[in-house]
Amino acid sequence: MPIPSRRTLLASLAGAALVTGCSGGSDRNAEGGRGAPAVSQEKRLTAKAARESADLLGQYDAALAALPSLAGRLGPLRAEVERHVKAFGGAARPSASTAPSTPPVAEKDVLKALAAAERALSDRRMTALVDAPAELARLLASVAAAGAGHAYLLTEG
Description:
The protein has 157 residues and is mainly alpha-helical. Helix content is 69%, strand content 0%.
């Protein structure tokens, strides 16, 4: 199976995000017309998304601590994940700068693990947006698309 070009991948991700993000409103989550259950659910989904983004940010920090030589490649992706944490209302942790206490790891293994983490989180977000109010669904779709793009970039070349 041929590998899609970046343009093709990004276009399909943007299309999926657009279709998904525009497909529903917050009133589908309210029970009997009351907004309280939707608000509570929205808060839970938002807190979970912030926590998961913060965890992913920690994985980027661990990767950079283990292999500082990847800073040029991982730095922009890490910065975007940090923005995702903030977009969901979470607090980003400072970047790790200490040397790791674990044995050396291969660059390809680090990239592969980060790509798998990005893919898994992107998939969870696409599943979660079905139950999310409209604005949160759009944010989840956008961040899921970014995560899928990150996974692609981590496995490319």
